[in-house]
Amino acid sequence: MKRYALIITLLLVNTLLWSQNPTDSIFNDTVFKSKVTVPADEYAIPNRVTEKYVNRVNPDETCRMLKSGIMIIGTGKNVRAAESYGGRNSGEKEYAESANKYKKVFGDSVNVYCMVIPSAAAFYTPNKLSGSTRHQGKTIDRIFSYLSDSVKAVDVYTILGRHASEKIYSRTDHHWAPLGAYYAAKKFAAVAGVPFKDLTWYTKHTVKNYVGTMYMFSKQKEVKDAPEDFIYYTPDSIQYTTTYTNYVTRKGVAVAEGKTVKGTFFQPVKDGSTGAYCVFMGGDAKITKVETSTKNGRRLVIFKESYGNAIPGYLFYSFEEIHVIDCRYFKKNIKKYVRDNHITDILFANNIARAVLNGTNRSYLRFLTQ
Fold it and tell me: Cα separation of 95 and 73, whole Å?
């Protein structure tokens, strides 16, 4: 139970029409300066079954398991702290059924997608500890197998596995790194059939001397003594405005809806800040609406917890509007919200532990009737 309490706290397109001339596309917009392409070898792959991953990054690394379920991997300046994954078999079907229910309710008027975000343990668990954490690819495969044919699976496990040698997860924090979210957003854009810009269209920012949540949860000094750079990216050639509807919370539960205010999507932090991941929207207890100059008629809702916060910033070139809704705080009726905001696409994007957690499915179903 302690392990799950920790997790709670922390936490097809085979060939898309990218080859068409941009002037023939429904996404023709002056914002887009060049033809958008998606490499077929990475992004036009089957979505319902993940690609087998073999750890070639650190298979023989020194490691140990703490009683809390946290793995300490490596030593010195490159030490990594990662949570083992336990999961719930029943939660796999429940999560898929959430997406299935939404597709049934909204029908052909709304596209529904299911993305399950793996944790760092999926890619960086040394062989010595492989029996101490469940196989996340198999969990994702089972979730996808329960999806109806009309719900589009978004397999980011395969893409992230192909980029595991890059800094796609933080070493000292339980979240993925913004680069991991970039690859996931790129995969989602391919499945959704919307334009996508690579990182040459973004400005790179670095927060130095970052030590995230895993020091607090592991209590291991070696994690504190191995700070890392937190690198994030902001879009350059797009106009956008961000509006927040904040929630009043009590003991982590939303009790009332606060004021709606204009704000900034990216909220810079100082070097050494332990809250660098909060650069995206400043946190979770809010509804975020981003209106962009991408006038293509596509309006997206992202259902998420904190893992999902890093995704929307890569989709400003892809959608006219992006609405970010945290599965723990939403108090409105989602049917009315979708209708009032002319939503065309809904993405379920939860980290794997949250996806299979008891209550996640119930929250999403409650949104339909509350």
Answer: 30
Is the Cβ–Cβ distance between 368 and 332 less than 8 Å?
A: no
- Three-state DSSP class for residue 63: strand
**SS3 call for 232:** strand
Give the whole-angstrom CA distance, residue 64 versus residue 71.
Answer: 6
Find out whether 3 and 68 touch, Cβ atoms under 8 Å. yes
One-letter amino acid for residue 224 of the chain: K
Contacts of residue 67, defined as CB under 8 A and 6 or more positions apart, other chains included, come to none
**pLDDT tens column, 289-337:** 999 999 999 999 999 999 999 999 999 999 999 999 999 999 999 999 9
**265-294 as b/e, with b when 16 or more CB fall inside 10 Å?**
bbeebeeebebbbebbbbebbbbbbbbbeb
- Comparing 14-28, 106-120, 317-331, the range with the smallest average pLDDT is 14-28
Longest dimension (CA), the chain: 59
Looking at the chain, the number of H-run helices and the number of E-run strands are 12, 13
Structure tokens at 134: 């469940």
Q: What is the pTM of this model?
A: 0.88
Yes or no: say if 211 and 224 are a contact pair by the CB < 8 Å rule.
yes
Q: Do you know the residue count of the chain?
A: 370
Q: Which domain holds residue 240?
A: 2-367
Edge to edge, the sheet with strand 286-292 lists 152-154, 111-117, 345-351, 299-304, 321-326, 286-292, 240-250, 253-263
**Tally of structural domains, the chain:** 1
Strand 299-304 relative to strand 321-326: parallel, antiparallel, unpaired? parallel
**pLDDT tens for residues 195-240?**
999 999 999 999 999 999 999 999 999 999 999 999 999 999 999 9
Which pLDDT band, with edges at 50, 70 and 90, does 191 fall under? very high
Closest listed residue to residue 105, CA positions, set 343, 351, 354: 343
Give the separation between CA 92 and CA 146, rounded to whole angstroms.
Answer: 8
CB 108, CB 345: distance < 8 Å: no
pLDDT, tens digit, 9 for 90 and up, residues 66-79: 999 999 999 999 99
Task: Note the pLDDT tens digit of each residue in 30-69.
Answer: 232 333 344 455 676 557 899 999 999 999 999 999 999 9
